[in-house]
Specification:
About 20% of the residues lie in helices and about 45% in strands. The chain is α+β, with helices and mostly antiparallel strands and about 350 residues long.
Length: about 350
């Protein structure tokens, strides 16, 4: 009887052991990739400084600060009265030469004038035609037009101002798309290629990501920094990005869709890592310790290369004192990693 009583007491004591309260989540697949961050500078897709090739006064201006212009639009006209007069004189001379040639051709046909005389006038006609072209070029030099579709910057001169070759009239840029030049270590060169997707962000627009792709690599590696310059193109339809801005670039390389668990589910002992997997076949449910092989990480999560299958339920909270085979009580599900601490939010 004493023996039977002892067995009952031990059974009661075992049943009185409290279950461990835990929270769980399912191991799911997430996209992992090698990430490289680099600083880059925004540049216009095309950019020029509008200048004059001749010295003259500004007669008319056909744009305001920040205007858009199409290729061929007239932006600035310089004084060209003398050039137009020379053009009209050259045209008159050309017309006279053409009329004289027509007259001589009739005389040559009748034998009244030699062929040599006609050829002399035809030569003079060619010279007159070249003078007309020269006069037209002089006029064109005084008409400054948009070389491509783009956006104008601030006007740097006013109507009536005297401009000389090299004087800046305005900047002219193509802002959609824009180029982003950034440098990455040479060790990344083997996997850096055209078409590689990037993400970039700037302090000017916190929280906004700008996506683009690599379009070209420099032909040389910098021997001092051992880095190479890459160029990406980023769509910029709203023209928020401007040349000269500093951006942080993120390159995604070697993407892989792998089994993933929250970092907080990991228990590490020296170089060994394991998680507790919920065994729901028992009543109450128990946990099994499983060794795992880790891969890449991203904020709040870690890639599992081996040890846990997709869909396995792992413990994320209540790990303190948890041992292999312990019976547990699931009190909730993992909601997600904590937000990073931002001192500015305080």
């Amino acid at each position: 009887m004493v023996s039977c009583e002892g067995e009952k007491n031990e059974s009661k004591a075992a049943s009185a052991v409290p279950l461990v309260n835990v929270q769980t989540t399912k191991a799911a697949r997430r996209l992992y990739s090698d990430r490289v961050e680099a600083l880059g500078t925004v540049r216009a897709l095309e950019a020029i400084d509008l200048t004059s090739s001749v010295t003259d006064r500004v007669a008319e201006m056909f744009f305001e600060d920040g205007d858009s212009a199409k290729e061929g639009d007239l932006l600035v006209r310089l004084e060209d009265a003398a050039e137009r007069a020379a053009f009209e004189a050259a045209k008159s001379t050309l017309t006279e030469q053409e009329r004289e040639i027509e007259r001589l051709r009739g005389l040559v046909a009748n034998g009244a004038v030699s062929q040599v005389r006609l050829q002399e006038y035809e030569t003079q006609q060619e010279i007159a035609a070249r003078r007309v072209e020269e006069a037209q070029a002089q006029i064109d030099d005084r008409n400054i037009r948009a070389p491509f579709d783009g956006v104008l910057g601030f006007r740097r001169v006013s109507q009536g101002a005297l401009v000389e070759p090299g004087d800046l009239i305005a900047t002219f840029d193509v802002l959609d798309p824009i180029k982003l030049d950034f440098t990455v270590p040479e060790t990344f060169l083997s996997s850096l290629k055209k078409g590689l997707q990037i993400e970039a962000h700037t302090e000017a627009y916190p929280g906004d990501d700008f996506s683009g792709k690599v379009v070209q690599l420099d032909t040389r590696v910098n021997p001092v920094t051992r880095s190479i310059t890459a160029r990406a193109e980023i769509p910029n339809p709203d023209k928020r990005l401007r040349p000269g801005m500093l951006m942080t670039t993120v390159l995604e390389n070697n993407p892989r869709n792998s089994v993933s668990v929250p970092e907080r589910a990991l228990v590490s002992v020296q170089s060994t890592h394991f998680v507790f997997v919920l065994d729901e076949k028992t009543s109450p449910p128990s946990v099994v310790r499983a060794s795992v092989e880790l891969g890449r990480r991203q904020p709040g999560y870690v890639e599992i290369l081996n040890g846990v299958e997709e869909g396995a339920v792992v413990v994320t909270d209540g790990l303190i004192g948890l041992v292999d085979g312990a019976e547990v009580k699931v009190t909730g599900e993992f909601k997600g990693p904590a937000e990073p601490y931002q001192p500015s939010d305080q």
